[in-house]
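Researcher: Predict the fold of ABC transporter ATP-binding protein.
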Amino acid sequence: MAPDLLTSARAAARAAWDASPRLLIGYLVVMAAQGLAPVSVAWLTKLVIDDLAGSGATARLAPLAAGLAVAGLATAALPQLASYTGRELGRRFTVRATERLFAATTERFLGLARFEDPRFLDRMRLAQQSAGAGEGLVSGFFTLAQAAITLVGFVGSLLVLSPVMTLIVLAAGAPSLAVQVRLSRRRAELAMEMGPAERRQFFYGNLLSSVAAAKEVRLFGSGGFLRGRLLGELGQVNAAERRMDLRELASEGGLSLLGAAVAGGGLVWAILSAGAGALTVGDVSLFVVGVASVQGALNALVGSFGSTHQNLLMFGHHAAVLTAEPDLPVPAEPVATGPLEHGVELRDVWFRYSDEHPWILRGVSLRIPRGASVALVGLNGAGKSTLVKLLCRFYDPTRGSILWDGVDLREMDPAALRERISAVFQDHMHYDLSAADNVAIGDLSALGAEDRIREAAGLAGVHETLAALPRGYETLLTRTFFSEEDREDPETGVVLSGGQWQRVALARAFLRRGRDLMILDEPSSGLDPEAEAEVHARTRAQREGATSLLISHRLNTVRDADLIVVLRDGVVAERGRHDDLMAADGDYARLFRLQSAGYQEAAR
Ligand SMILES: Nc1ncnc2c1ncn2[C@@H]1O[C@H](COP(=O)(O)OP(=O)(O)OP(=O)(O)O)[C@@H](O)[C@H]1O
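Model: Structure tokens for ABC transporter ATP-binding protein follow.
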């Protein structure tokens, strides 16, 4: 649930204050002056006209005229000042709100579960949008305040002339306000409802324009199909918005006509009253300006009320993300994650991704002793990568526990735990950054430390490749962006092969060597046999004496592990050294023989 309007308004006000207290106060002052300027002009005009229409020029005429000129100047200058101040405040608001949002996504949600929850993803998208729309939120709110000040000023003035007429003008504006509240609430709901369709639309658009999908889209001829899906989603969003616009048109059109009729009636009354001597000429001028201004201010008030209301409802998603329950409980006083002395142990670990999902692990007990190289094997979907994610505490076990030197991971700060782990994930990242950054991101303390980066790349066997790139390690490993220096160069950026990317991922892990636990999830799956043997030798050397967990489908790469664990149907089906498992003649032996027979066949 998004927080209520008041909470959102408080959060927005706090964000604006945090963005810049000075600008906020300055903006308030300018807006108040801008709100009062039209009222001052109308009153000064009335007084001038009355003076001129009465006894002629009086002693106060000169100061009144000067006042009118100053008010005119202010009326001309204030909007520009207000607009600049508002935009600047809006920009700073956006920076602050964006910073807080992304700080929350990395520091508050320490696991992965939130990012697999479509409702949360929709909320994140709206939160991001509303953080980026700081200018609209800030200026909408202040336009509202300014319209309210103008309104109060003119209502006060009209009350002096005709309380009845004032009430009628106000009453004509009230339904608009009520309608706006309803419409804006509906608009905010619509934004949330349309979230999935918009995200799918984005997804299809991305597929149609991304290089990653281009091969399959072309070969399978799926472009028309994807375009159709995209347009279908777009059509759905448009239809919902059109219904909303029509609703708005119908209700607002009628209300505007009502307002115009009231203004016309009031004007007739004022002219007739002046004819009968009940009002002065100045009064009529004040009345005409007053009615038009009250209606103008009411329209502005209603309009900015609607948009501010909607902006605040949207900003509610920002506030909701910032205050959402963390996905992983972290104790107030976490136990320090010390250097691994004895080992990591999974004790009767059961896990499913949510209550609706099937069990993936069903009572896995496993010990990774310090200094040992443990290999995890099993068929596709056996739960190997899931186990890795639990070891990094991206999720907590549904039942059972994982212990680091006897301490439950739940009692530790996940960031401190992860500091002690190095990993290559099966679905490792290709960052659209330079080669150096792609390696350094494994350990940011190495940013700018060229020798460390080169050494890690050397260990992963990718140094020669990276050094030979057009700009060496500074070459961008993407054709999606260009660096400032390469702006004019159509050849900017390079594309690495799958195996080269795999080595870069390995270099990131090697940059973190010396950590207590090294996890290698399919580190050589994309490599040619020679490269695989070489990477295997390198990882083995790195794992020597280090505590490591290696997942691989290529059983020749795990045969020298201290312990091989076979995972099947969510439990440990076999465990032991290579020779023990071969002697036991179970799944491992069968798979090993299958693979080696394949190689022998190929060699014949
Ligand atoms: N985020 C997720 N949400 C729901 N189910 C998931 C998620 N990630 C994985 N699964 C499911 O968990 C099961 C185990 O997946 P996992 O990736 O751990 O298998 P694996 O042994 O590493 O397989 P492979 O050898 O193919 O890499 C699969 O059935 C998969 O569909």
